[in-house]
Amino acid sequence: MSEAQLKTHGELVRRRAPGYGMPGELFGRADVFETDVDVFFHKHWILVGVTADVPEPGDVSTVDIGKASIIIARDDDENIRTYRNVCRHRGARLKGAGKSTVGMLVCPYHQWTYDLDGSLRHTTHMGKDFDVTCRSLIPVNTKIVGTHIFVCLDKNAPEDISRLEQTMAPRFAPYDLQHTKIAFEQEIIENGNWKLVIENNRECYHCQGTHPELTASFLPEDFGFCPENLSEESLVALEEYKSRNAACQASWERDGFVSETVEWLDEDAVTQFRTQQLVIAGAGESQTISTRVASTRLFGNLTRRDLGDTHLWTHNSWTHVMSDHAVISYIIPLAADRTLVRTKWLVHADAVEGVDYNVKDLTEVWLATNTQDKHLVEITHEGTQDPAYVPGVFSPFTEAYVDQFSRWYAARLSAHGIA
Fold it and tell me: Does the keyword Ribonucleoprotein feature in the UniProt annotation (predicted)?
């Protein structure tokens, strides 16, 4: 092994200079990856789905996260429950990854049978003294915020999920996101490290050159910019941007929508998140090529189309909620150089395809953006594994959140005795 390969995970993290990218080994090494999964996907709250994944009693969705697997189920009382996907007999997986509908959860090995409330209902050949009451499925810590299903696999789940819940619940409430359906969903595998996927999502320095579909609905100043030596034309545009933002924010607040930016991102955060209500360019209605709504059936009982984009980041997800549809993406790391990205497009539960919306208008912006981001992550991962790679300096104007993510990553590892 080279000297670099012999460095511990903590040493690699400490080697990062403030304001610079991470060492390439943090993206490429298998031992680093295994630790990342354990810390950031088993001990932190992560997004694993939406309530529309299990719309009816008996619907289940199985999600694999590293060596762990969970079952999300809607029970007969329409409550959403989550369990470890492990039979309490000899550990067999109850369900394979994906969605299905069941009456009960039956182990395929010895047919131990569980109710959707997790209780063991049926076994054979176990004798009259066998106590089924202590063999229920293992529950998982779960928080539902809007439509978002967050879980923590650790028994000691971070308590600051309450910050996210208290911040986002009133923002999501007018949209009635639990009364939605999945109009389209996509899974792609990006051949890059999960941290590079998140870093790419945390900046829009690259957006104008690579995301023509996405930038049709964004105001360019929201991408970040260097305020030094701006032209007279740019200064005028900046003042117009500030005026438009202020007017939209004031209008939303008057109508009862909570729109102020909230950040819980720095080293003292455990459950990292950020939310902002972005003004949409053009017609100002939705993240579409035309910037008008893709679905004429708005969420909840909304009547305003021009509600901008309620944006939420966590360390494994990003969400965009407009008046007519929502785009929710989350990631699951598969290997040091492979990351699964799941994206779901939600519309009102009563919206009718071909009448209220068509899938092309609904999806074309983020289908294109996801494809473009996949390429960017992959070429960056390849470059960071090149022997010539030396971490570069971040732009303080457009990549501050990437630097912030790097600091948070180091802080969380330190909290677990690693960095």
Answer: no
